[in-house]
Amino acid sequence: MESQNINPDLDLNERCRLLQDNTDLRLENRRHACAHFRTAAVVHADPRRRGTIGLSRPHPVINRADLRIEAGEFLQQLGSPSGEVYGRLDTRYEGPRMDPLEKEPSYDPQTARIAAAYAAGWDNYARNDLKLSPSTKFIQQVGDAWGIWNWKHVQPNVNEPVPGALNTMADLAAAMTFNPGLKIMLNSGYFDVATPFLQGFYEMRHLPMSAGLQKN
């Protein structure tokens, strides 16, 4: 989802830095992603015509996937020029691939680098500053909580829990409708593939609520 004004040979993080430092370029890329690229993905664009949507030099993997690249595939298949895999939570972290033939990375280089220090820092803060009980157990990785998490969330105007991962966008729309004075701050990272740039903005623009509340 990049404009033709970004050199396709640049490293992913260099592209992110260009976006971070250039407001006009961010706006151009946002228009490109929400218009040309989205249209092409919906209509299964003919590969011979992809130059018209800003993909004049598409990666072979992009062609084979018909423009539909999952996050894990992106990190593994479209990794750095040196053949390493990018971090999912922060692509500025790179690491060697466990298996070059894997479809998706089997680990996150960012987590491998800083998870231990992050957990130790939190534990020190929880015990010494918050004075939490030493017997309190904390789950560091979301994967460890997946099987015991309560997924029975009932969205507004729905009688039963919606199966699958939790989605609170409907709750946010209901809260903003109930309280029209509610202001929302939306932050987005340029190096985050777990919650990528533009995804939050896109979802906010499609909240089931009055268009007049979008200014909030």
Q: Any overview of this molecule?
A:
With 216 residues, the protein is mainly alpha-helical. The protein has 3 domains: 12-108, no CATH class; 110-140, no CATH class; 169-215, no CATH class. 39% of the residues lie in helices and 2% in strands. It contains 8 helices and 2 strands. The protein has helices at residues 12-21, 23-43, 60-64, 71-77, 109-129, 142-145, 169-178, 199-204, and strands spanning 85-86, 94-95. It has a two-stranded antiparallel sheet with strand order 1-2. Strand 1 (85-86) and strand 2 (94-95) form a beta hairpin. The longest helix is centred in the first third of the chain and has 21 residues, at 23-43.
In short:
By secondary structure, this protein is mainly α. The protein has helices at 12-21, 23-43, 60-64, 71-77, 109-129, 142-145, 169-178, 199-204, and strands spanning 85-86, 94-95. It has three domains: 12-108, no CATH class; 110-140, no CATH class; 169-215, no CATH class.
Largest sheet data = 2 strands, antiparallel
- Give the N-terminus to C-terminus distance in angstroms: 27 Å
Strand content: under 5%
User: Which overall shape is indicated by the principal axes computed on the Cα atoms?
Assistant: globular
Spatial arrangement of strands, main beta sheet: 1-2
Specify the structural class: mainly alpha
Give the helix level as a range of percent. 25-40%
Domain count = 3
Q: What is the C-alpha radius of gyration, as a whole number of Å?
A: 21 Å
Mean pLDDT: 76
What string, H for helix and E for strand, traces the elements in order?
A: HHHHEEHHHH
* Low-confidence blocks of residues: 1-8, 51-56
Instruction: Write down how many β-strands occur, each being a DSSP E stretch of 2 or more residues.
Output: 2
**Number of helical regions:** 8
